[in-house]
Design a protein that fits this description.
The protein has eleven helices and three strands; from the N terminus they run ααβααββααααααα. With 241 residues, it is mainly alpha-helical. Among the domains are: 87 residues, Orthogonal Bundle (Arc Repressor Mutant, subunit A), CATH 1.10.10.10; 80 residues, DnaD domain-like (Arc Repressor Mutant, subunit A, Orthogonal Bundle), CATH 1.10.10.
Length: 241
């Protein structure tokens, strides 16, 4: 999905298919979740995550979701049990492009050489802009990092990662995963333990996380020294006795 095209088409669509403010809010929240999942055609989003992102109540989200579905902005599939629903954001910009194409065809499709030249110039400019877009490296995305270094990314874990990215940051979530890999603790509960410690300690940056990790190592080293010292003293007391 082209994010810029999607946003522009969304607001162009508002001119003839307007939405309430709650529905607009929910659409942007779903776009954010979809972005975190690397623009999958279908993705999951729990009610808890959407409430956090949109700051809407559950009842407001249900109404807004119904509106988005009825007006053709998204599709929604509920699932049994506690499984998160499946969403799909419909690519409105494709519809807009098709409408523009039909308008050109109805007008006769005639153009002079100047128009053709201008069109070719615009196409070249657009191609250049697309080439200049910076593509995010796989390991810059927490979900991809998890898949590449820890294990299969289930919808449940994906949602947890998204929540922690909102609570902390993508960089800190990836950092916690790196520490888990280094410690050979390849499961997300270990990452969560690290993130909770950082959250409680007020860590908000990578530098702060590094300092916290250094302090943790020092405490462990001191604790080990104290333990070894106490064992040595106990042995000495036994020998003297």
């Amino acid at each position: 999905m082209n994010y810029i095209k999607a946003i522009n088409a969304f607001y162009d669509h508002q001119e003839f298919n307007p939405l309430t403010s709650a529905a607009i809010n929910l659409w942007h929240s779903l776009m954010h979740v979809n972005n975190k999942s690397r623009w999958k055609k279908e993705f999951t989003a729990s009610m808890t995550v959407l409430c956090l992102k949109s700051n809407l109540s559950e009842s407001s989200i249900r109404k807004a979701r119904k509106e988005l579905v009825e007006k053709g902005y998204v599709t929604f599939t509920s699932r049994q049990g506690n499984q998160a629903p499946i969403y799909r954001i419909l690519p409105l910009y494709e519809e807009m492009d098709n409408e523009n194409d039909s308008v050109e065809e109805n007008s006769g499709g005639k153009s002079n050489g100047s128009d053709t030249g201008n069109t070719n110039t615009l196409i070249k400019q657009n191609e250049t802009k697309e080439k200049e877009v910076v593509v995010e490296k796989p390991d810059d995305n927490p979900h991809h990092f998890y898949e590449n270094n820890i294990g299969t990314l289930s919808p449940f874990i994906a949602e947890k990662i998204s929540v922690w990215c909102e609570e902390m940051s993508d960089e800190l979530v990836i950092q916690s995963m790196e520490l888990a890999v280094e410690s050979n603790k390849r499961f997300f509960s270990y990452c969560e333990g690290i993130l909770k410690q950082w959250q409680q300690g007020g860590v908000r940056t990578l530098r702060g996380a590094e300092r916290a990790q250094q302090d943790h190592k020092k405490k462990r080293a001191n604790s080990k020294q104290e333990k070894n010292k106490s064992v040595f003293e106990k042995l000495r007391e036994e020998v003297q006795a």
